[in-house]
Amino acid sequence: MAKKSGGGGIGLVLLIGAIALLASIPKVVWITLAVVAAIGAAVYVFSQNKSKNKKEKPWNSTPPPSAGLLSDLSAVLELPRTTTAEQDTVAAQEPVSVYRDASAPRSHKVPAPPVGYGAATWIPRGQPVTIADTVIHGGLVYVGTSLRTPSGRPDPALIDPSKKVAARGDYADRHFMDYWPCYSDITPEARRAYLQWLAGGRQDPTADIGYVFLFFYGLERRVILDGSGEGEEARTAQADRPAIAQEIRRLLSVYGSQSGSFQRYASDLLTIVEIDTYSDKLYAQPLPEFPDSYELPLYLRLALGQCAMDNVPVPAPLALAWVRRDPNIYKRTPATRCAEQFEKLFHERYVALLNGGLVLPKNKTKLKFLYRAASAALMAHGEIKVTFGDTPDVTVLTGPVKKLQEVVDVVTSELDAYSRFLGRSPEAADALEGLLLLPPNLWPSDARQKLDALLARITAGMVTMQLQEVAACLGTAQRLERATVTGLARALGGLHVGMEPDVLNGARTPKPEETVVLFSVPQGASVSCSSAPFQSAALTVQLALAVALADGELGAEEFRHLRQSIEGWTHLTAAHQQRLRAHMRYLMAVPPSLTALKKKLEPLAAPAKEAIAKFMVTVAQADGAVSPAEIKMLEKVYKVLGVDPQKVFGDVHAAAATPTGAPSAQAVSTVTPRPAAAGFQLDAARIAALQHDTDKVSALLSNIFTEEPVEAKPIAPAVVAEPEPEVHLPDAPLGLQGLDAAHTAFVHQLLSRPEWTREELLDLASDLELMLDGALERVNEAAFDAHDGPLTEGDDPITINRDLLESQPT
């Protein structure tokens, strides 16, 4: 019992000691131990769950094949399908191993990625490709998911099929494109719009210019990056250049006028594409078509420089191309409204006024061409610089431009009337009223053929026809008013053809159904005769025909006598005599009126009137008999002349017994007696003796021989004519005002390049006869006035202020 009770006491002591020991442990220790226990419990539970999952998922189970990726790819890129055998072959080349354990390997085959995913591919022209259910037939694009630029950035022109494309897009919306667009960065809506624009043939003029630039970046890369070098890939890219050049020209025709920036970049890239085709004598080659531009194309500048190098005159077509595209040459409305006529007339006047053509000096400024890429991703590629040896840049000179300007002014002045006619009646370009305002050599081919046929008839002799028939031979006239008839006479006069009546010198305007006489005029002679001697002769013929036709007809002898009389008036020129014969033919159809002649005869002196009266008697007796009707007409003529009518019978008998004379056409000429069989002939000696009377009669007649005096029209109220729009490029580049021609040309040259060396600008200033420092100061002052900033910066090199350029609207 003692042992038992002693053992129990020891245990109790130990229990009490343990409790005392636990009670002595700090409270912080207990809290720490509790946290550790909780963490341990959580780890144990997690490990148990993981073990359970492993037992539920066997080691050899594989996930079901995912159709999601391939389904999405087929939605954005349509590609040719491969056969099962082809798929097995591709899969066998790229095995993926999955191991059961270390001793039991097992392989699984996976399909290759679809074509179009991976390295980019250039799609040639004409090869179709489908992106996001949109078929693009034109080609000339890059397709793929990987295409880097020299700087390592993704190329903005790359069409990445993996990028999301919206269901709808509007390429006319200008809110979806950045200033430097990139296909991978634009919105899905913009991608859809871009693909639709490509599928539509890249030709809708309403498209935002950003989409055009995005496509243009691909052409630029193909030319600059892929086409550089000498490898197989470069040669393949170079083979695409003709197609690219054709596409750039097409894009310029659609979008060049919408964006000055695109016009500039596209024109420069076209130059890079075609520069290898330039020969050493471009001025001798047919000129290609040039896109509109604010600068002279390199082709023209090189051709002109070659003219200077070879010391040959600039051909007229090359000079005309220079005129049309040089912003320093001012061109008025006729240059564009009458473009075809302007071209033909310019060729003629250029050769005539400049003695065969403009010969250019060989100046100091050397010809260069610089190209900067439009794509932001290619800017790191640097500047492409092309030089042409010692070939000068003659377009910096002001002297040749001034000479061309003079020719342009002459041509436009000659076309002013026709241009204004077209402005009023644009649909009547080929109407007779319009054609008569042009030199006949500028008439359309069909009108010119009709005119040549009429001229052939006139060459054989005089032609008598109705006025409306003449007009019909040349074109359709709206109304044969006086202005149209005088224009017709003036046009025929330029072709050495005269017309009676002489409407250019005041003759009455014939009605459309009335007769006119057309006749040829000797080369170099005037077709119009307004001098007093001619008018005196014409008056004599008019009186003679009035007498000869008094009996109702003009006999053959009377006609012959009048004709011989005209040919005998030797003081008249051959042109005068030809017109008098035509005038006589006209009077046979339209007999003169004594009443109308009376006013013209009143100023004549009495001796001249008596001499004319006697000449009328010889005309009446030319056929061997004087009828009572002719006697009556002679009495009227005598009365009109102021000669006593009682003298008619005495003069008739005297002429029958001893033929006397005929009056001179200028004053009065006499006829010497001849045998009757010989008829009446003029005595040249007597005509010479009476020449002193000619001056007196000419003085009397100088102001009175006008059949249809021009009535003074009342002064109409002043009407301000609407000014015609002028078509020309601005003379003040960048809006810089107050610059003369030399400084304006200097600015145009500065803007053609982003950077110049001081030596280059010294040559340029020397060609323009300017001091370089003074010219730069003058230009920069104008730039400060217009834009609050200088145009140039630095001393050597001298750079152009890009901020100022980019602030200008395109």
CATH class of the domain at 532-701: Mainly Alpha
Total of DSSP H or I helical runs spanning 4+ residues: 31
Structural class: mainly alpha
Determine the CATH superfamily of the domain at 532-701.
TerB-like
Q: Give the CA-based shape.
A: elongated
Strands side by side in the biggest sheet:
1-5-6
Mean pLDDT over all positions: 75
Transmembrane segments: 7-23, 29-47
Domain TerB-C: 670-806
Pfam families: TerB, TerB_C, TerB_N
Domain Co-chaperone DjlA N-terminal: 541-647
Label this structure with key terms.
810 residues; mainly alpha; TerB-like; elongated; disordered N terminus
Textual characterization of the structure:
- The chain crosses the membrane at residues 7-23, 29-47.
- Residues 125-335 form the TerB N-terminal domain.
- The protein has 810 residues and is mainly alpha-helical.
- Among the domains are: 121-282, no CATH class; 441-520, no CATH class; 532-701, TerB-like (Orthogonal Bundle); 733-806, Winged helix-like DNA-binding domain superfamily/Winged helix DNA-binding domain (Arc Repressor Mutant, subunit A, Orthogonal Bundle), CATH 1.10.10.10.
- It has 31 helices and 15 strands.
- The strands form six sheets. Strands 1-5-6 form a three-stranded antiparallel beta sheet. Strands 10-12-11 form a three-stranded antiparallel beta sheet.
- Strand 5 and strand 6 (134-136) form a beta hairpin.
- Helix 19 packs antiparallel against helix 24 (628-641).
